[in-house]
Specification:
The longest helix is centred in the first third of the chain and has 27 residues. It is elongated, with a radius of gyration of 17 Å. It has one domain: Up-down Bundle (Ferritin). It is mainly α.
Length: 151
Amino acid sequence: MELLSAGFISKFSGLLFFLNRSNKEFEMVADEMGNHSLRTALNGLSDESYYYAGELKNYLDSLGIITETKEPGAEEGVYDYDEPPLTAVAGDELLHICAHNERTLVQAYTELLNECLPFQSLKDVMVYQLNALKNTFLKIKTLNSARFAVY
């Protein structure tokens, strides 16, 4: 018996892809960060993304739902990424990367949460993950702004 439609499975696969991509991207950004607090927060976001992807994949596997984490094709627009404009404002590059990743992750979670999921516990896990990710992005934005504040 198929519990979720192919559309749901495709959306879950997309969410898993975005979480894995965020994991790798923020790990690379953290390696280049000189500010210790911000580097720690970026590594935390990278770890959270990896953990959340694994948690969702394991949950779906336990339900017998097979998802793929393969990269979507170019025609799906996943790699449509606006390069940040060159500005003299310090920290804009990180804010742009955060905004792009936050927007794609929130959109992926929201699309799934707006559907009628047959498992309330799955929905609860996803709401928790979404709120935790939003909180972490807010922390990173705040730390990024604070490192350039004049005291």
